[in-house]
Amino acid sequence: MPLVAAFAHNRFDPQFVGYPIATFCALYALTAWTPPRSFALGFAVVIGVYIGASVGDHFPNNGVTFAVVTAVVMLLVRRVLGDRERRARVAERERDVASREAVVDERARIARELHDAIAHNVSMMVVQAGAERRVLEGTSNSTREVLETIEGIGRGALTEMRRLVGMLRSDTKDELAPQPGLSDLPMLVTQVREAGLPVELHVVGGPRDLPVGIELSAYRIVQEALTNALKHAGEAHASVQVRYGADSLELEVVDDGLGGQAPVAGGGHGLAGMRERVALYGGRLDAGRRASGGFAVRVLLPIR
């Protein structure tokens, strides 16, 4: 195509508009859309044709000048487009790295939080087993041996948990505070309201005792969803619904804002953290823009 366009440019009346346009389109296609080897070959052919066509011309210097200018422009455009593509690839790699780091950080945070929650329960088990063993001093040996075994296993589990989770802890010390649960959602909603986002909380079904890990994950999911709405929804209202099912816990956080939100496919860091928490319990996450406007996060966590 560049070869035909080059011949056409030199053989036909230059005042005719179609052939110069075809020539420039062909040269741009050669410059922008071809791999390096094909570009080098096409570039050599085009410049050779221009120079060769100028040999028999009445003004050969004009043909050589045009060939040189064309060559410089093609190389410059090629360089600019190449730099732009490289910057785009670097930016894409940086986004991928940031997304992976966000997932790793969220997993470490989940591990730390679950360690604190589970360690409390295991500690209570060890303390109760030890107290019961001391009460039974002088009675059945088999019962005391079982309690000693439970106490020893519990202490060993605590030691191993502290050792493994210690590798995940950052240099900054975590605040010593009880891990939140669903009972803390009213306080969270109040804080978000005070920050400027009107929020309504609705609880469907009777609250009941749930595994501490599920309560913690549910709280963090609602917290992250409301934080995203506060950041991106703009002038909006939000609602939080917690539904206690027979064998599941359902969460829904929706807003009616017009602000831009990252779609699920974009892998926003907040959504990445939600996915990790939901996947930990084999649940389901559905998040995205609503047809009527705003953003919705719906989560189902099975209760086993």
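Second entry:
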Amino acid sequence: MLFSEVLGSLTRRGGGEPIWTASAPDDWLQGRSIFGGLQSALALRAMRDLVSPELPLRVLQTTFVAPVAGAVSLHAQVLRAGKGTTHAEARIVAGGQTTTLVVGVFGRGRPSKAEVAPPPAPVPPPEQEAFVFPFIPGLSASFAQHFEMRFRSGPMPFSATRSPPTWVVDVSLKDRATTGEVHVVAIADAIPPAAFAMLSQPAPGSSLTWTLEMLVDRFDTLPLEGWKVHADVRAARNGYTSQLATIFAPDGEPAAMSHQSMVVFG
């Protein structure tokens, strides 16, 4: 089931408090839970039912509270609608408990003398050939079959490096839809934790919290192929890691910045 098809299954029920429902098949699982990028994208789509499409997404903050799989229910609301900025919230709920909490900040652009562009995308060493992450049923995360990821530079996963890892990974989403903010959310979360390079063998790893800052207002002129993720592990201790990443569009322009707090055991 394509990413756009899962998002297309999101249905809003009427009545009192609005509730959205969707169903994610097993091929979108990441261990016991739905792929985090898909959870955030579903929550964003629900919030978009309440927020004007004229307001670009600026920040998406996600807290992954508990695993969730299969059919999901979402509750969304606008927290505040100001003159230029709107805050909204969406929760994925299972068994009466919140499993995922997402806050979106939407805002129109305004004049400002503060203009700072992130550094350009790094150029991989010419001697390092791109390595395609293979999809291995039973070993790879199920959702990974919907992406093509080419490892361009940095220490390989499970190579037991002792230096803080820096990765450059080319990411493409296998879908037929026009590129939108929800697709960038999925692409930004697709790569494995870069801290895997510090391990000697496969081990559990997942996100606890995730902040994604959008740097582009529109994405519909960009393809779903050829995105680049430049990720750095900035800190790691007691199984908890801090990973920063810049997501570059296929034209080389920085499109988003990501900060994930992760658990990586092993």
